Amino acid sequence: MLKPRSTPTRDLINLDGLWLFATDSSVGGSPWTAMLETQLEAAVPASYNDLFTDPAIRNHVGWVFYQRRVRIPRGWSGERVLLRFDAATHAARVYVDDVLVGSHVGGYTPFEIDITDAAPAGSEVRLTVAVDNQLTNVTIPPGTVTETHDGRRQQQYLHDFYNYAGLARSVWLHSTPTTRIEDITVITDVSGGDGIVRYDVETSASADVRVRVLDAHGAVVAEGAGATGELSIPGVTLWQPGAAYLYDLEVELVDGDTVFDSYAQAFGVRTVEVRGTELLINGEPFYFTGFGKHEDTAVRGKGHDDAYLVHDFQLLEWIGANSFRTSHYPYAEEVLEFADRHGIVVVDETAAVGLNLGVQGGLTGVGPKPTFSPETFNDETRSAHEQHIRELIARDKNHPSVVMWSIANEPASNEDGAREYFAPLVELARELDPTRPLTYAAVMFATPQNDQIADLFDILSINRYWGWYVFTGDLETAEHYLEQDLRGWAQRFGKPIMMSEYGADTMPGQHSVWDMPWSEEYQRDYLAMNHRVFDRIPEFIGEHVWNFADFQTSAGIHRVDGNRKGVFTRDRKPKTAAFSLRERWSSLDGRKPGAPAASDH
Predict the structure, then answer these.
(1) Residue 443, Cβ neighbours under 10 Å: how many?
(2) Which of 340, 241, 328, 323 is nearest to 288 (CA)?
(3) What is the DSSP letter of 568?
(4) Where is each Glycoside hydrolase family 2 immunoglobulin-like beta-sandwich domain found (predicted)?
């Protein structure tokens, strides 16, 4: 799906702002077929949960309604009129006046709806969006909805971040020609000093396709014709980690001198390859430094905010990080576009977090029932998971910053049924994109001895908390077991290994001269212990600290106003560990510890 943008043949209107808002429990009947009788207004983009002081809204489980009036420009007569939602968490139904015009399931990927017939050019319509936050055993991510004795719905889920919901990303009204470009795929390679650009253009009708490659200054450096083809860029400038360079593939749909449609797709020329126990970007070994992150800020919840986007990337640069994982869902596309422009490497993850009933059994990993079964996570769950993979890759396939797909976080890969569940998903992801390696993040219960799916993937991403959840406060013992653990993965699978999560909850301002959990010194020393082990493992290719910043979770006695494993506070103030990470990562510059710098070769 092409991201809406203004072109010589397309127009775009942003619908962000204040919308009327109501929960299903506060209005009766079918509120989407009439004006909402409410005094509440909600900001878009933003999660609705923290906007209001009413706990019934924050804790609401079920449908909520957003509504506003929209005027379709008179000049769009004869064009297709579409609504685009960058995300609606977790399901949506869309109404124009009294008519249901479309729906979507999945909270972190975009969808668009053709409203040409329901909203003619020049008309004003009532737009209502119903959004559902409920999670079940057949949604991604999964959850369970129960009822209290007084009839209130309660949501339980297996992931450790707050179930923020609503319209957390932008809403757009846009037009396209009736004869139009539907999709563009760009795959790049390098031959000597030239860049190779393989492209595929999908169109709504038969027409001639004309393509040109423009460099960063707008100069034409390659051109061709046909819906599918290969172009060569002489003396190409590569997209590199820390040194981004982008080209535009300008596509026109034409008939002689008549241009039906025009669209420019940004891309970078770079290669990604797993060779032995290394990941290579442009033929050079790459060592990941950075974080698992979250889309999470005060008041906005998961609402996208460009100011936080800029500041977070500034902090990534300050601390010496070269990468992050979109844990545990696809982030707003603006985040990936920013990473494209600034040379930050991304591990792009689906929203498949919580496919592990073992977490209900604590660190024993023994759940009350099997994770994969007809009654728990089943064929219908996997079908939803497949759709998430399809939509993620369709959206993000052209981003040069994305070097790897992560199709799940901490699934029960140690349980029977895991292979039957995941093997078709791996096959699907490889079919959709054979150019990028695949990974998943392994949970603490999954060991080199009992994991049933690691051989299906290209890179082993390991989540480990030795010294925090296990051997808490005993870093010497934790160091011994961590090294044994990682060496076991390397010995059994012979693949590149990275630590996709390691961290310790830390209260800013808590200090101690001893190994005292929750203190800033303990977080610093915990990370240093992990780094000593990483540096002794030849197969190691990277480290992503959990987490970039403190973030909100559901209420619980083991959380103090959220998860406190951030190296930065929720409002982005550095803890002590941030300075030690900055010292380590700034010296690595994308190289494995101990490896010579490029100038030393």
Answers:
(1) 24
(2) 323
(3) B
(4) 179-270
Residue 340 CB partners (closer than 8 Å, separation 6+): 239, 244, 246, 266, 268, 399, 400, 401
Determine phi and psi for 500, rounding to 5 degrees: -85, -20
Cα dihedral 27, 28, 30, 33 sign: negative
Q: Provide the pLDDT confidence category of residue 601 given band limits of 50, 70 and 90.
A: very low
pLDDT tens-digit profile of 451-485? 999 999 999 999 999 999 999 999 999 999 999 99
Q: What is the DSSP string of 242-284?
A: TB---EEEEEEEEETTEEEEEEEEEE----EEEETTEEEETTE
- List domains and CATH numbers for the chain: 11-176 (2.60.120.260), 181-270 (2.60.40.10), 288-600 (3.20.20.80)
Q: Which residue matches tokens 């008309």?
A: 123
- Residues whose CB is less than 8 angstroms from the CB of residue 408 and which lie 6 or more positions away in sequence, other chains included: 349, 350, 352, 353, 355, 385, 422, 425, 440, 441
- Separation of CA 527 from chain center: 25
For the sheet with 111-114, list strands across it. Answer: 11-14, 171-176, 80-85, 111-114
**Strand 258-267, strand 247-255: pairing:** antiparallel
Which residues are marked as active site? Answer: 410, 501
Helix/strand/coil for 487 = helix
Closest CA to 131 of 153, 149, 115, 108: 108
Rounded to an integer, the average pLDDT of 365-377 is: 82
**pLDDT reading at 154 higher than 90:** no
> Residues 485-511, buried b or exposed e (16+ Cβ, 10 A)?
bbbebbeebebbbbbbbbbbbbbbebe
Q: What percent of the chain lies above the pLDDT cut of 90?
A: 86
**Cβ neighbours around 261 below 10 Å, total:** 23
φ, ψ dihedrals at 338, nearest 5°: -65, -45
